[in-house]
Amino acid sequence: MMTIDKFSGWKIYNKKENVMRKVFLLFTVLLACTVISLAEDEKVSIGDFEKDQQGWEYNGGWEFKGAEGAVSIDKENKKSGTASLKIHGDFTKGGSYVAAVKKFKADMKSLSFNIKTSKLNGFDMRLKDKSGQIFQYPMKLEANEDWQVVKMEDFEKAGGSWGGKNDKKFHMPATELWVMNGKQHITDGQKTADIWLDDVEVVREKEIIVPPRPIPSGVRIPQDSIFGFSGHMIHTDLVYGPDRFSPYWRLDYTLPFLLEGGFGCMRETLYQGFFTDEGEKKNENKEKNRKLVEQYLEMYSKAGISVLLCPMFTKSGRPSFDDYFSWLAELPAKYSAVKGFEMHNEPNLKHFWGWSVEDYAESCKAGTKILKGKNPNVPVVIGSISHLWWGPGIKFLQKAIKAGALEGADGISTHPYRKDFAPEGGDMHCDRFDPNGLETEMMDFWAMIQKYNKDNRDLSLYFTEFGYSSGNGSGAFAPEQAQGISSIDLQADYLSRIILVFFDARLKGIPLNGLYWYDLKCDGKDPGDLEPNFGLIDYNTSSARPGFKAYSEIAKTFGQVSSFAKVPANAAFDRNDNAVKRFCWKKLSDGSLYFAFWRLDQLQKEKKDFTANLELALPEGFDVSSVELQDLGDFSLKPVKYELAGGRLKLPLNVKIRASWLVIKPKQPETVKVSGPWLHVLPAVFKTEGGSLIKLEGKREIKSGNQPEITVSIDNSKSDKALDIMFVGGGISKVMKADAGRSSTETVKLPKISAVQELALCDYYLKLGNEIIGRGDIAFLVQGGVKEVVEDVKAAAVCVRISPKIDGSLDDWAGKKPIFFPKDGVKIKDYKGEKDMSGKFYIGYDKENFYFAAEMVDDEFSQKESGSKIWSGDSIQMSLAPRLKNEMPDWYEFGLALTAKGPEAWCWVSPDNSKEEKPLNCKIAIRNENGRLTYECAIPWSELKEVSPASKYFLFSVMHNENDGNVRRGWIEWASGIGADKNPALFNTINFQD
């Protein structure tokens, strides 16, 4: 017997009676139509529970405190096989629900499972789609002991949905399933109940698996290449199962591309839970997973590709931490590919690191001790912060270093994503239209790190994630980092440019030891998605994108990094010269010049490629043999016609949005062998084949406007041959001699240090005959530079002396100069002018309080939220921070709003309580009269311990959110660093009135 009724595509069968029972949702919807497909379908199990829980995890409904429970394997109650999953809920102490949660990934046509309960008349289920949107389905059950079959085919017929795209459309693939044991469904007033779950299956279109291409043989990768990718070698069916991942991240799929592309390094993330037991609970797959990783490391080693392993770990002292790191410590000696360890991924984000920054530092120290106990010279890298100058990331890194994370470590890693901006500009630290913004941000970042490097250790920098997605939208976990650019061609354009900017920084003296584009391969099939489309190879590895080909050409040309040196790019274009980026490098092994150039589309009014005549000044005595053009648009290397006049090369060039470069070969090629180490600090010691030593020394600190000096000592006492060593660096070439059996010392004066930067770099090399016996770079800390001066800075506004009555009238502020929200501070969609949103504000202080007042024009007031969510309606958000020298400060972020409960003040961020939001202790008055909102508040200095009138300055930013009733449309701001980015570097400077 079968009965059809109005429901949402769910069917529940009672197997004992062999009759299909109707399932009524808490609402009425139409029966879903059957989907007919000509493609072959397959069933995939995501829960048969024969061996273990198969990744199903317990969730205690923690937003409603009090519930207790567990998920466990039950071998007594099962529908088929030997076991089922039991979901136990105990609501004696309160709470609302407990749940079993399964993460998976499937473009499913249907979902089915067996369910059994004796005390529940229903349950709730949730599904999450790829956008993060959650659909909840309230279900009715019969409270008996029979197994019932649940089947679903229409996933949009839900009781409610929220999050993600929030458009009530289910965007495949599905990524999470929740089966919820809820208190409201328990019968007879009881407080406990159980659900048993078995045979959870999805039906999806069977995927035709593309075979991997052959792994090429005989490919030689330069051992000092810095060009590579961030990969996911364990994101496969072999580790997660076919319900989560396809096989396409297996190394037999990706390694052929790496070798064909000439890439020298990879970053691979390893999650602790796959490789250790969980306390007393044994992980049956631990040894299998370890064996797979070691198999892949052996493949990398044979290919000559270096690997930076990124272990994701729990905090030290917890079960299996030592066992995990002990296994990791064995790998460098066994596999030559392992060149270092990066300690975690983006620990400044709670999604990745759930403990404190102090816990991170302690875990880094503990892990480093184990790693270096077996491999003293293996590099350990800390940080891995999201972005380069995002405020919360920088603050996390500074606190981690102060807590000791850098002890024993050898480098710092960051993720300098550029959102959807052109790569040369700044982001959060420098202006995005500054053609040198990214270069300045790197210099300033390294200056900050060097100031923490008190003992002048040889540290390196790694960019372990950066990239552009060809998809749409913004990032899920850190939207400040990335936004889609909607084009695989623009992805290739920007890739070619950002890689060459990084390469130039490496040659200039920033010790960049690894560039890891995120990521190698696309993780999904939909070209419009943001997260899956950072990759340069298609999802199933069937083809490569233009960006891969452009990156490959760069890696093959410049992979032998130590063979190149930066030289001045003395060039001019007769058209749009200010909109052309250019670099010049010399290949030391043969003397060729490489002149790279491209148009800066962000500076162009007419964003088109153009033709211009180039005039390039050649080094003295350089005779040109030939000139070729490497075009990354059509990937061709072609000879071009040119003219020579007075030591200048002249030729017309097509200047494109994608990088190109000229290869200018000399008539008399040099034959120079490049060997020896590349050192980053002084003193630096180099050794010749004959055993002679060359030592460079000098002071690290230098006053601005002075000439730094270094001494070069040659110990030739054990040689019977004289030495002539050429020092080349800082625009200076100097030959130094040492007779046989003698030693000598000479002083080299480098160019005068500018009074602008906090850090000055000098790259150099030492040449002995036809051999470069060593490379180096020196980082001078500049004392007295303009950026160091905090005093006498021009303040953007004054915090006046005042003691107003907090009543919302603003009468006491009469006669004080208001601060107006500027027109360029409008960040409101479809802005209609000043009547839509505009205003002014005041700031003041006395011994007891900091005062804020504002008068805003708003044509339509809307504030439907309360507490921490007031930002989504009409409201004030403001931030204060101390002004510190050479350090990102802690900051406060407060909100003021007129809610249904009355005036409210909220604290989202404070240095002493950064993890918990809370109401703000202050006096507050807000009025809404005749289209005008007035705000007034007094915040005691006890709530602002990091900011004090005793200091001359502080940092401040304020914004007003705009909501006209339906949705938050944006905001109007004075300064920045709140709405788009949480970054006190973007606040304005305020001085206290004397």
3D architecture notes:
The protein is mostly beta strands and 994 residues long. The protein folds into 5 domains: 10-205, Jelly Rolls (Sandwich); 227-562, Glycosidases (TIM Barrel, Alpha-Beta Barrel), CATH 3.20.20.80; 567-666, Golgi alpha-mannosidase II (Immunoglobulin-like), CATH 2.60.40.1180; 677-787, Sandwich (Immunoglobulin-like), CATH 2.60.40; 790-992, Immunoglobulin-like. Helix content is 13%, strand content 37%. Strands 44, 45, 46, 47, 48, 49, 50, 51, 52, 53, 54, 55, 56 and 57 form a 14-stranded mixed beta sheet that branches. It is globular and about 100 Å long. Residues 1-11, 13-38, 476-480 and 786-791 have low confidence and may be disordered.
Oligomer: single chain
Number of helices: 9
Helical residue percent band: 10-25%
Output the structural class: mainly beta
CATH topology of the largest domain: TIM Barrel
Principal-axis shape equals globular
How many E-type strands?
A: 57
CATH class of the largest domain: Alpha Beta
**What is the architecture of the largest domain at the second tier of CATH?**
Alpha-Beta Barrel
Overall pLDDT level: 90
The low-confidence parts are: 1-11, 13-38, 476-480, 786-791
Instruction: For the record, give the distance between the C-alpha atoms at the N and C termini, rounded to a whole number.
Output: 88 Å
Described by strand count, sense and barrel closure, the largest sheet is:
14 strands, mixed
Rg estimate, integer Å: 32 Å
Report the portion of residues in β strands: 35-45%
At the fourth level of CATH, the homologous superfamily of the largest domain is Glycosidases
Count structural domains. Answer: 5
